[in-house]
Inverse folding.
């Protein structure tokens, strides 16, 4: 048994059972270990951004970490953008990054780089194995860091000679991992007092407060106080559909968000932080809550907010169960030849989406059009682009499907975003996943057309227009998807999309529908 | 005029005339500036790794920097792997990375990250604009850093409010940029003495010593001394073809390289460092020159080695011109139905490749089969994968084509490597570049099959084999290429490849030939 094998066995003992891999020579003993040891499935990815995005999707749904296996600094670098999203989602992810053998490192061979420095900005924990005898203990430490209590990205750097050593370090047994922390009773009592004194409070939820139990408690509270329940714009995961509480989603545009919050005198923050605008704009404020509003923190990503919100609702005398909206009626398609738009995609999803679907939203502008339709539709989890690094949708879907094999997954992707990490389609095909990718083909970085105007940079001339347009040439998403092994169709009308969606659901496996909008 | 406009005008004054862009909201004033100002062409890329790889290709061929325009930390992160290659190529590249407005940064909005920390490992210079009044001066500083004297990657971080400010900072005039440094006469004299005393010296060249003049001087020297002339395995750029000196390429495999160097008593190093193996292997040394060989450094990447080598050749009494091999005879294809292999691709290139072609080699295993064929063929520049971060070929080709619009460019890519940055095809199509992409479809990470055995990790079982295979499903590279707008054909025989190459050359514009090997 070599050291990498001890490490893999130790990780399995901690409940880590999946590894998204893109290995190279320096990780060959990890490959061999994954081959020899039962209990950890390897999923090959063609690009590291797929591996890290998939690990994020798995972490958000499984609430426990999967591994990635990445090749030195450049391999990690390719995965950093989706690790940024994972970090912002407080998603548990464990990167295993191979490095050169310790004696080889100072020779500065071509693939040498400062891996710790690259990992640090996107990781809450970084460690480098110093001796083969440490591999198991450091693996446990890394898993612990991914669990939290604030969940996140842990990056373990493994020199090749520490992986190949036959020193036979111990395999460590299962250890108890940290969980979310209970919120102190005094904090809950203070929140109750503040809300009791408020004229116009807002309950502002995010993070783990957007899971089912947290929303139910927050709904009880807001209904009892007759106040608004607002969620952060890009929550990691929100439980939705008929029978669940649906918070209002804070607008992306700062001026609208300020309008939505303007009369608030007490902002109760649960699982997030007071809202700030996504970007800054000349002459506009970045902080969105009224300056004189009192901010009351119930807890952040490390805190277990569902029981805290329930205790708070109890303390304020809220009824035991909230009122819930009835299930949306799914309208028929009466004008099938109408041109497609994101709203109609939402309508078709409302009509056909299975219960307990998972939707991964990487459709910067189009997602906003789909989202409202499903509020009281089939129960589902909606996963947002937490860190703004586009190229998350298809990888996230691949990971979510591995976390929840029985559930239908959708990736909603803008065409600009999909072009970042389209290699995820290959992993979807290889693993025969029940994923329907909807590529919204507007042939532009549409959001940037708005943003160019909003930042006051003047009317775009031809060079600026060209930089925001994907029209020359148009990408053929049917060809691209099929090139990676995922069948695809194009839909330009309401009826064509509705039919394509039904066909894809009936056939099972991965599909791409190119929504021409 | 806003500050970004001053910066762009200043950059143009320094000779920077090209920007590979993938902007977002925080870079909209750079987009507007590029739109308003004449003299800097914007080239849109669908993924930042394409932008940085293209900037590397441009830098290697133009010997001056192009800009990239990248969106915050994640945008930079996506470009880091190809910046790693650029860094190892000593290629001048200037990244302009947008950041949030200064007041917005401490609010930790979703896209916030530590950009300086991300940039540092791959950059020789990192700077963040602190005040709008600094933009022009810092732009000059960044260009200066990219020029060297050791050329490399400079990363300039530009907060959005420093770009949009209308403080109107000065536009700075052209400044003299650093060039390569002359090698000290004493160093040349010492090298002459050492070589004079050597029984079995080796002239070991790399970096700028592999350009035409350096090789000619090194050839004079090695012919006069009747000693070996060996080049580093992955040089940034080597001038090749009939009428030029062809150094022996040091083997990739350490044991072969050690055999090649074994009798050497004096190693004269020009433009590189003493060779080390690419990876470490259990029980094998990483340093490849004999332990008792005397290493004599003529100069490194910052030094102007062609004149130094010429002076050294003169000092040792070498004739003024080296002997040169005659032009290779390009054999006919007598068995057109033979299955294709990389050697036959080399043969077809020898038959049809135009003079002054540029070849970008990202074909890990197949490139070795093509390379020898062209040694005395048409004159060309061959660009290697300097940093080992695959996914360089198609982007590098796009940049090289922009640096040298009159020259035919080839990207030689393994299918595993091509899958990293295939979005470069779209830029090739958009810019109507004369690039022929050869994708070697062996449907595996072939090199890793060798490496798994070489590291002694045992015989691969099914899980390990699956991790090194790209066979399930097979990528359809014709579909993928056409999906991004580049026409493509498949060739599985010697004759089919030869015909496809002729067709592509005749048609002009970008093409992909899928070489089934």
């Amino acid at each position: 048994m070599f050291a990498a094998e001890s490490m893999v066995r130790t990780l399995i003992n901690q409940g880590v059972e999946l590894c998204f891999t893109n290995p190279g020579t320096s990780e060959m003993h990890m490959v061999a270990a994954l081959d020899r040891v039962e209990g950890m499935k390897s999923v090959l990815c063609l690009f590291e951004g797929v591996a890290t995005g998939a690990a994020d999707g798995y972490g958000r749904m499984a609430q426990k970490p999967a591994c990635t296996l990445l090749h030195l600094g450049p391999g990690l670098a390719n995965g950093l953008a989706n690790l940024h999203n994972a970090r912002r989602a407080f998603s548990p992810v464990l990167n295993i990054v191979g490095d050169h053998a310790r004696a080889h490192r100072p020779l500065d061979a071509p693939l040498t780089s400062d891996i710790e420095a690259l990992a640090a900005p996107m990781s809450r924990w970084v460690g480098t194995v110093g001796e083969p005898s440490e591999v198991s203990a450091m693996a446990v430490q890394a898993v612990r860091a991914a669990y939290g209590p604030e969940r996140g990205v842990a990056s373990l750097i493994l020199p090749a000679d520490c992986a190949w050593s036959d020193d036979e370090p111990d395999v460590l047994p299962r250890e108890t991992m940290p969980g979310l922390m209970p919120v102190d009773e005094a904090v809950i009592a203070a929140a109750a007092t503040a809300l009791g004194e408020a004229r116009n409070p807002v309950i502002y939820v995010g993070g783990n407060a957007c899971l089912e139990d947290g929303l139910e408690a927050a709904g009880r509270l807001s209904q009892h106080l007759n106040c608004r329940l607002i969620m952060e714009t890009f929550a990691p995961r929100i439980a939705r559909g008929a029978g669940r509480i649906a918070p209002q989603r804070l607008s992306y545009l700062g001026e609208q968000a300020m309008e939505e919050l303007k009369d608030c005198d007490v902002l109760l923050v649960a699982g997030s932080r007071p809202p700030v605008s996504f970007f800054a704009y000349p002459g506009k404020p970045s902080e969105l809550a009224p300056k004189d509003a009192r901010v009351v923190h119930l807890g952040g990503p490390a805190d277990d907010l569902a029981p805290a919100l329930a205790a708070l609702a109890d303390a304020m005398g809220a009824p035991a169960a909230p009122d819930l909206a009835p299930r949306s009626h799914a309208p028929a398609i009466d004008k099938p030849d109408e041109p497609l738009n994101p709203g109609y995609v939402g309508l078709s999803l409302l009509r056909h989406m299975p219960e307990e679907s998972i939707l991964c939203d990487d459709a910067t502008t189009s997602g906003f059009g789909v989202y409202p339709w499903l509020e009281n539709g089939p129960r589902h989890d909606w996963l947002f682009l937490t860190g703004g690094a586009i190229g998350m949708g298809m990888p996230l879907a691949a990971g979510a499907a591995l976390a929840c094999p029985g559930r239908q997954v959708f990736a909603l992707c803008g065409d600009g975003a999909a072009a970042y990490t389209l290699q995820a389609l290959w992993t979807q095909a290889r693993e025969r996943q029940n994923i329907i990718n909807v590529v919204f083909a507007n042939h532009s970085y549409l959001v940037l057309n708005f943003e160019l105007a909003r930042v006051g940079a003047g009317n775009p001339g031809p060079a600026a227009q060209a930089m925001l347009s994907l029209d020359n040439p148009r990408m053929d998403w049917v060809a691209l998807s099929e090139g990676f092994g995922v069948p695809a169709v194009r839909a330009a009308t309401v009826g064509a999309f509705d039919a394509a969606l039904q066909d894809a659901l009936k056939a099972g496996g991965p599909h791409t529908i190119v929504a021409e909008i």
